[in-house]
Amino acid sequence: MKKIVLAAFGAALLLSSCDSTAPLISIPAENVDQLPLKVSELNETQEKAWPTKDITADTIPGMSVAKTYDEIIKGTGSSVIVAVIDSGVDIEHEDLDGVIWTNEDEIPNNGIDDDKNGYIDDVHGWNFLGDVVNEQLEKSRIVQKYDAQFKGKTLDQIPAAQKELFKTYTEAKKQVETEKDELIQQKMQYDQIVAAVKSAHTAVSQKLGKEDYTAEELQALETTTEMDQRNKAILTQMLNYEDSIPEFLVMINEQLESMTNQINHNYNLEGNYRAVVGDDPDDIKDTDYGNNNVIGPDPDAARHGTHVAGIIAAERNNGIGMDGVANNVKIMVVRAVPDGDERDKDIALAIRYAVDNGAKVINTSFGKYFATNPEWVYDAIKYAAKKDVLIVNAAGNEGIDLDTGDTVYPNDQLDNETEFADNLISVGALNETYGGKLVASFSNYGKSNVDVFAPGVQIYSTVPGNEYEFLQGTSMASPEVAGVAAMLRSYFPQFSAAQIKQIILQTGVSTNIQVSAGGDPENVKSFSQLSKSGKMVNMYNAFKMAELSSK
């Protein structure tokens, strides 16, 4: 395979920044349009490490992490704190326990706010959710709050000052009713599938004398009745989704459990999950709440945050599990995302907590489409910008064009177009195969609202209980970029958060390959038009630019 070589370095580009006047030297964008498409499937080893691969050498759209460590990174940079605002993190995980941030100014478990930062015994971060695990969606909370006031009324019956609120309520109510009904119908279908598969599996297992049989063994099974043929057809179809029927049943039962939780909690219009916390979630000045249990009351509920933390900073080269992107960071855990929509107050205070306690990069792998107090979060993002802190944010998993759709929160755009801060990177998700399906089918996109793309499908990382799993989403793409940002801040501390953002956006790998957007084969667009940069994050190129600019 012919390797594409970077052209000569270009002219110097001075980026405006209130915090730094260090110039950045631009390098030409690498274009991989002439690369052959990879047709062979990844093996297990490649699958677990595909985000580290180099697209020119491997035709795998990774971030060239391994190449960067092999060819550029020497010695140890300065330690950087990365805050993970999420569902909690298993800080005792074998691959994370050595990279968890410790507040050296706090004496553990003495019940005193030793460092006077407003949080008692915040040794490894703070839990703004207390004992909350389940929560409603924001749209459900809006319907619950305003149903008595607006139910049954029309727009012309509403005072002018409340018309926008009424429109929000009406749209929220419509979505809650429609989505909950669709979810109930889908769950009924899944229940029927499970019943049919279990019945067929029992019959076939008895005939074969074992429960764990292969697709080949199933195909070789003789059928003498219509029921035999039916059972064989059902199981054959299910084996398209998993390698065995027991694995399929585990998978579909997990989905059923998720659906049940959504119906019972996310769309619950009578819930009061916040009561256990004891604060007023509508009062941003009511800050005396939460606790220091950053794992949360249910370790399993910290699965998402633990996975995110591992992507960023799982201990490298320790011979176990997997390697995080960054080798010299500490993870500050800020628990603020329940199994439902986050509260604006929690996110605003979580960002401020991270900033005030030394984080230089914040990962925010969450989002929603309704917000009751987005200004609190906007102000927190501006505060982070003023304090030179970079925020890396997941673009969302609805497969939509954010430039033409509803506003997603959090974001750095007041009018869905003009940025009010220069310290936030919005990240879409890449698939593991270079070609027409390069963009993950679920990934949001947008020439204005999404900045860049990074690996987000089949990402192998840490989960609670010293375990590891493949998960996917823009939630996984965001920490990939947060890891790159942390490494740049570690080795090139002279550059501001705004400059680190520009380095990452400018040095990504570009391509004009035609891809399916939103998973729709009819919606074909040039990859370069799906984000502001039109690029895939590349750690090697980012380090080359930072290295050249630091001389």
UniProtKB/TrEMBL annotation:
SUPFAM superfamilies per UniProt: Subtilisin-like
Signal peptide range: 1-22
InterPro entries linked: Pept_S8_subtilisin_bacteroid, Peptidase_S8/S53_dom, Peptidase_S8/S53_dom_sf, Peptidase_S8/S53_subtilisin, Peptidase_S8_Asp-AS, Peptidase_S8_His-AS, Peptidase_S8_Ser-AS, Peptidase_S8_subtilisin-rel
Keywords from the named record: Coiled coil, Hydrolase, Protease, Serine protease, Signal
Keyword flag Signal: yes
Active-site positions on this chain: 86 (charge relay system), 304 (charge relay system), 475 (charge relay system)
Pfam name, any one: Peptidase_S8
CDD domains: Peptidases_S8_Subtilisin_Novo-like (cd07483)
Protein family: Belongs to the peptidase S8 family.
Name recorded for this polypeptide: Serine protease, subtilisin family
Species annotation: Leeuwenhoekiella palythoae
